[in-house]
Amino acid sequence: MSSLRIVLGVGRTPSGHRGTGRRRAAAALAAVVCASVLAGCGDSGSNESKGGPEKSNDRGPITLASGKDTTGTVQGQLDRWNKQHPDEKVTLVELPESADQQRQQFIQNAQTKSDAYTVLNLDPIWVAEFAANQWIDELPAKEFPLDKMIPAVVKTGNYYGKQYGIPFNTNAGLLFYRTDLLDKIGAKPPTTWAEMKQDCEKVRKLPEGKGIGCYAGQFDKYEGLTVNFSEAVASAGGNVVDAKGKATVDTEAAKKGLQFLVDGFKDGTIPKQAATYQEEDGRRAFQAGKLLFHRQWPYQWTLAGAKDGSSKVAGKFGVATLPGLAGPGRSSLGGLDLAISKFAKNKATALDFIKFFSNEENARTNLKVTSAAPPYAALYDDPALRKQFPYLATLKDSLATATPRPVVVKYGDATAAIQESTSAALSGSKPVDAALADMQRNLSAAIAEK
Amino acid sequence: MSTLLLTRSARRGATGGRRGATWARRLGIAAVVAYCLAPFYWMLVSSLRRPADQFSNAPLPAPVSFDNYMSAFDPHNGFGRALVNSLIVAGITTAVTLVVGIFAGYALARLHFRGKTLILTLIIAASMFPPIILVVPLLRLFTDIAWINTYQAMIIPSMSFALPLAVWNLTAFFRQMPTELEKAAQVDGCTPAQAFRKVMLPLAAPGVFTTAILVFILSWNEFLIAVSVVNEPQKMTANVILSLFTGAYKYDQPFGTQMAAGVVVTLPLVVAVLFFQRRIVDGLTAGGLK
Amino acid sequence: MSVITPTPGRTARPSRPARTSRRAGTGGLAAALLSPTLLVLGLVIGYPVVAALRLSFQVSSEGIDPSTGFVSTTTHYGFGNYAAVFADERLLRAWWNTTSFTLASVTLEVLIGVLMALVMHRAFRGRAFVRAAILVPWAIPTAISGILWKWIFNSQGVANALLDTQVLWSSDGFHAWLSVVVADTWKTAPFVALLVLAGLQIIPGELYEAARVDGASAWRSFWRITLPLVRPALVVAVLFRLLDVLRMFDLPYILVGPRKPSVETLSMAAFHEMNNLRFGSASAYAVVLFVYVAVVALAFVKLFGADLLGRGTRSEP
Predict the structure, then answer these.
(1) Which residues cross the membrane (chain C) (predicted)?
(2) Region A364-373: what's the mean pLDDT?
(3) Which residues in chain A touch residue C43, judged by CB atoms under 8 angstroms apart?
(4) Within 13 Å and on the Cβ side, how many CA atoms surround B140?
(5) Is residue A396 part of a domain?
(6) How far apart are CA A388 and CA A396, in angstroms?
(7) CA distance C307 to B108
(8) Which of A347, A444, C23, C309 lies 20 to 30 Å from B157 when distance is taken between CA atoms?
(9) DSSP character at residue C316
(10) Options 3.40.50.720, 1.10.3720.10, 3.40.50.300, 3.90.380.10; which CATH number does B76-289 get?
């Protein structure tokens, strides 16, 4: 929501309490990011770790900074912890709902080295930035059951081979499709883009399929566009950033991925309005019966299936993994990771709390109550859960091949570069080749040192 | 113009109303009201829809539902307490800003001293910097002096955002006041302070009252600082609580609840202004001058 | 409204400030009266501005340590941030958006605001209701009104339904620009109206009476009496609208979104830099904006509001 609010680092002030000499020395050393921005360099505990995270033994009350706890599930889990640990109580600090605002609050606290937040519930795209700037601590990976979690999901908390975030939940895209219409033409859910287009043409010839929009995803100029572009590239066999951290959108695969989206807008496979779609706009269109195929997160399952009249497609849709160029496509990963603020107190408590908070039992409750996808692989095969969430099997397949969004320290610049060029190409104001050339240049600049 | 100014004539009755409003004027009034209220009407209608038909374009909510208001005032949100906090912060900000602003405005309009232009320029320059740049230094300052989670950490910045407008506006008003009145009061034995309070202030009432409304609304709507300097729910203002509203699920923007909360935040303000307008403006001018 | 009747000793025109006989001590009194204002502004605005100014000259270059992945920063002082800002085509675009928003919105707001004030000033039945109605748009928090307009301008929203169009308002381009102007004008015309109304309220009614006796038309009264006397209030209203629109940020950000070339303002550019942790160039953008606002505001005051600057030498016609 609202007003985007800010983070402005303004430097140490002339009236700062440290002496000028020290300040100059600090600036020269410049070991810590934004040394100049933060009030003083050296910092309290010299937590610079070399080889393995530093162990803290400090215990006491801590906070969990997270988006709003809509269902009260989090508070229930905190209450249980607090009962067992009366001297190490965890207080929930609810942050504004928008992801941007949450990040701004996190960064403001890092800027002022505030200890107001102990445990952060962080979008994985920011893990690299926070780790590289040393705003969050490395965590002892061995103390967590990471081997029981889906490997791609565990990787979202990893930076330079060290674990900074422990998956709290995850997410991947699915292809929602209209079973009633596909049945009429005798087709199975498509695994390739070409099949999808063919199905569409056939459905449009049916009386009930007249004028239906074929396909939509999230194409407004925001983070969703980065997700959808990355998926298109990955589904064509490429990647946005390779394993060595180099931008690779000047490849043939990237071109084919973007071309799919551009052609979709051009030939009407993707309806024009989809250029302003975020998740909810697309969901409303799908539920109103205006879309045959829809790339969406699993949350749509329950809503589109509601039988109270709010959805025209209840009982008439199914899910599949995303289609790709030559075979099944690959999704981008969403979710949340838990991390510990470098500037916090009582880090031993924080570590224990993350172990508790991210355990399998809590993940199961979260899935049941909030339908948040768990990081634990076994839960996807649990018969009771599968019954409650029939899409779990498909989601597991989607997660198995999912790719993290580009791991870039300057993720904000990277995603801006991707959105800039993609939206220019989609609107037709730039040819695909030129758009990708621009993107390659800007991405490389965002990745390289500044 | 000078002839007009010098001519004195009989006292007038109610302004212009006697001739009766022409149709053209009535139409103009209707247009102005429609212009102001149409989007607000949409907000009201949206807030009264069922969450399920939140995005309907029907001109009337059918069926009417108070679900959005119920969820805005869900005890878990603490919206009621947040409204009280907003009232405290905006109320104190308005009161203190007015007092401080009246001092400054009076000095700038009535006293002779060097550097007046410079001071007026400095004061207005405070309104020229993008506010987003101010947050982190302020946060650092308030952390150092342990003002985090206090009312004053919201009040003082709010004052500073409102003061330039208050001072400039009041200065403009005091400059328009005839000096003769003040002098006459002093001849009658009033001290300068009494002359100011009993003669100048009532005359400037429309300006003071307008300034009060503007300052109150400015600080009532302040978000940037409030969201940064407070993290205890007990001290959050309505705007901050509003930003915490969530939908039923992750991607759902709680549009209906936000519209309901918007109505709740807006209406009391309008009612209060109406109430005070009659009491203060009409009361003061009538009592002070008749 | 209430009727202001002539009081003994009062002349009907605003007069120049008194040359009081109590010259001694005015300086001290002025200092005492002004110090609270200056103190608050110095603390909350002055100190951060100085900090930002300093930061804008601090040029950082970052590198990533190849073994740990940690960012390392080196800084020096210089004009590098400004050089980068001025070399970026984004500056010109943001400057133009900022300027065009200001010209369009402020012009519309003054026209509509003055009209509203004149309507509110007249005595008629239901005037209280009209006054309340006019206040509504301004009393709605920007965040909320941004969301409201975003929905109105949604591709499936009520604007398209009423106009029978399929415009993608929030995508980009002229439509997006227009939607911001419409929303901003709606929200802030009441601000102008309130200030102008207050100015109208202190105009003594006998002036109009006199004008009528002299046979002046309503139109002539407006130009010869209303406008000159309401000018100080109008100048303050326009001045503060200028300051606000030039720094506009929330509305285009919520309504259209960040990094849309047709609506990105200078404030939004500064925010984008800051949000990506380039505090030096964010501060440089902020300083550029500050200088621009200062030039526009001071030029405006010089042109239209010299009498507000308090030289006390205004001559009466």
Answers:
(1) 29-50, 101-120, 132-153, 173-200, 221-243, 282-304
(2) 91
(3) none
(4) 26
(5) no
(6) 15
(7) 12
(8) C309
(9) P
(10) 1.10.3720.10
Does A256 lie in the same domain as A109? no
pLDDT digits (tens, 9 = 90+) for A76-129: 999 999 999 999 999 999 888 777 788 888 988 888 888 889 999 999 999 999
Domain that holds residue A118: 57-169+334-389
Of the candidates B217, B221, B128, the one whose C-alpha atom is nearest the C-alpha of residue C242 is: B128
Residue owning tokens 């009930």: A208
If DSSP codes are grouped into helix, strand and coil, which group holds residue A121?
A: strand
| Contact indicator for B202, C274 with CB cutoff of 8 Å | no
Indicate yes or no: CB of B137 within 8 angstroms of CB of A70.
Answer: no
- What fold is seen in the domain C32-62+75-307? MetI-like fold (1.10.3720)
Q: Residues A150, A29: one domain?
A: no
Per residue in C253-278, pLDDT tens?
A: 888 888 888 899 999 999 888 888 88
Please write down the HEC assignment for all residues of chain B: CHHHHHCCCCCCCCCCHHHCCCHHHHHHHHHHHHHHHHHHHHHHHHHCCCHHHCCCCCCCCCCCCCHHHHHHCCCCCCHHHHHHHHHHHHHHHHHHHHHHHHHHHHHHHHCCCCCHHHHHHHHHHCCCCCHHHHHHHHHHHHHHCCCCCCCHHHHHHHHHHHHHHHHHHHHHHHHHCCHHHHHHHHHCCCCHHHHHHHHHHHHCHHHHHHHHHHHHHHHHCCCHHHHHHCCCHHHCCHHHHHHHCCCCCCCCCCHHHHHHHHHHHHHHHHHHHHHHHHHHHHHHHHHHHC
Residues of chain C neighbouring B120 (CB-CB closer than 8 A) = 308-310
CB contact under 8 A, A33 and C71: yes
Report CB contact under 8 Å: C123, B14. Answer: yes
Quote the tokens at residue C280.
């030096």
Cβ contact, residue pair A8, B140, below 8 Å: no
Cβ of B132 and C249 within 8 Å?
A: yes
Q: CATH no. for residue A122?
A: 3.40.190.10
Q: What are phi and psi of A239, to 5 degrees?
A: -150, 160
Q: Which of residues 40-59 of A touch B (CB under 8 A)?
A: none
Domain boundaries, chain B: 23-65, 76-289
Closest CA to C186 of C243, C150, C136, C152: C136
The pair of three-digit structure tokens given for residue A6, joined into one six-digit string: 């800010």
Residues A183 and A163 both lie in one domain: no
Among A111, A303, A370, select the one facing B136 at the smallest CB separation. Answer: A111
Map tokens 């300034």 to a residue. B211
Question: Which of chain C's residues have a Cβ under 8 Å away from the Cβ of A220?
Answer: 170-171, 257
Rounded Cα distance between A184 and C24, Å, is 97
End-to-end CA distance of chain A: 31
* Domains in chain A, number: 3
Q: Which helix (H) or strand (E) holds A175?
A: strand A174-178
Within 8 A of A13 by CB-CB distance, chain B residues are 137, 140
Residue C255, amino acid: L
On whether residue A49 sits in a domain, the answer given is no
A277 located within any domain:
yes
Closest CA to A116 of A310, A361, A343: A343
| Identity of the residue numbered A40 | G
pTM of the prediction?
0.83
* Coil, strand or helix at C17: coil
- Both A265 and A413 in one domain: the answer is yes
Tell me, yes or no, whether A294 and A408 share the same domain: yes
Confidence of residue C106 (pLDDT cuts 50, 70, 90): very high
pLDDT score recorded for residue C309: 64
Contact A10 B136 (CB under 8 A): yes
Instruction: Kindly state whether residues A126 and A72 are assigned to the same domain.
Output: yes
User: A155 and A268 share a domain?
Assistant: no
The ipTM estimated for the assembled molecules is 0.81
CB of B214 less than 8 A from some CB of C: yes
Q: In this predicted structure, what is the pLDDT of residue B280? A: 52
- Residues A367 and A313 both lie in one domain: no
